[in-house]
Amino acid sequence: MTQIFAYVPFKNGVAEDVAMEFPGAAKKIDAGAFLTAVVAGSGADLDKVANALTKTYAEVIKIDNPALAYPNAEIVRKALTNIIPSDAIVLVAHDTFGMDLAPGLSIKLDSAYAADVVDVEGMDGDALKLVRQELGGAVSTHVTCDASAGAVLTIRPGAFAPAEGGASGSVVDKSGDAGDLSAKRTFLEVVEAEVGDVDITKSDVLVSIGRGIEDGDNIAIAQELADAMGAVVSCSRPIVDAKWLEKSRQVGTSGQTVKPKVYMAMGISGSFQHMGGIKGNPFIVAVNKNPKAPIFQVADVGIVEDILEFMPALQEAIEAL
């Protein structure tokens, strides 16, 4: 039976949404695998998260240490190396912290490494078959890892359906097995993203624009659609880089994290940096001229169309209602 461990990130006592998606990835690797969640931190928030995860995971390993109170991949890597067997498969979220943690962890465990996994085709003996994306999501590649000595995989948030729960697992405290957690780098502070005149993190409906808007003057078209829908306009990073909208409107790992009920992705390709800022499994409507845009892989509704033609038509239809 395959041993699979999922490192679960959390904030303010609540596990990130990807915690519910790891079981889906694990099931595709090996339907009979034993899946263990690992949470590392300090204090009451850690206990709260560990106990909540027992509803989804059969086993939850807790590593409680004051050195883990703040995010430091160097320290977490040390702890996981001492806790996780070298031949196990480890799942890590493909976010900024996960990209810092996972490569070095695979080296420490002397195991295979694959980044930005969006699908799993299963195991064939020791061969683990995966699907990942390259060139900003323009190309899907089918790769095979030799998992005989284990593997570390970063899983793209939102790529796998969330688990429904139903487990009744237990918490195992392995704080004493974490070993020396000293580090050469020191955590300084968390700098929160700036909030502008509109707080996109509070909106239930977002009309989010990307390169497909073509020109800053066309943002007015998106704003008119948003007004008709009772929504707020947000954007991907290229729009901020072009200085067409302020950074407080940017969705993504280098911008704001949003949790809307409906996300309208207009002319957005769907890179993992952008999708990493979308939480809570919203209903995603994607409109893009490129039928191979990665956004279509996670969208609930995908429409191949020029957004400059689609948005006015949708606005007109909404106002007619």
What does this molecule look like?
With 321 residues, the chain is α/β, with parallel strands linked by helices. It has two domains: 3-177, HUPs (Rossmann fold); 200-320, 3-Layer(aba) Sandwich (Rossmann fold). Helix content is 24%, strand content 28%. The protein is built from eight helices and 16 strands. The protein has helices at residues 22-29, 44-53, 73-83, 96-109, 219-229, 237-241, 272-275, 307-320, and strands spanning 3-7, 10-11, 14-15, 34-41, 59-64, 89-93, 112-124, 127-134, 139-146, 151-155, 170-173, 205-209, 232-235, 262-266, 283-288, 301-304. A nine-stranded mixed beta sheet has the order 9-8-7-10-6-1-4-5-11, with helices on both faces. The radius of gyration is 21 Å and the shape is globular. The mean pLDDT is 91.
CATH homologous superfamily designation of the largest domain: HUPs
Mean pLDDT: 91
Indicate the structural class: alpha/beta
Please indicate the percent range of residues in DSSP E strands (runs of 2 or more).
Answer: 25-35%
CATH topology of the largest domain: Rossmann fold
- Main pleated sheet: 9 strands, mixed
- Put simply, the count of helices is 8
Number of strands: 16
The helix content is: 10-25%
Whole-number tally of structural domains: 2
Poorly predicted regions are none
Q: Separation of termini?
A: 56 Å
Radius of gyration: 21 Å
Strand order of the largest sheet: 9-8-7-10-6-1-4-5-11
Under CATH at level 1, the class of the largest domain stands as Alpha Beta
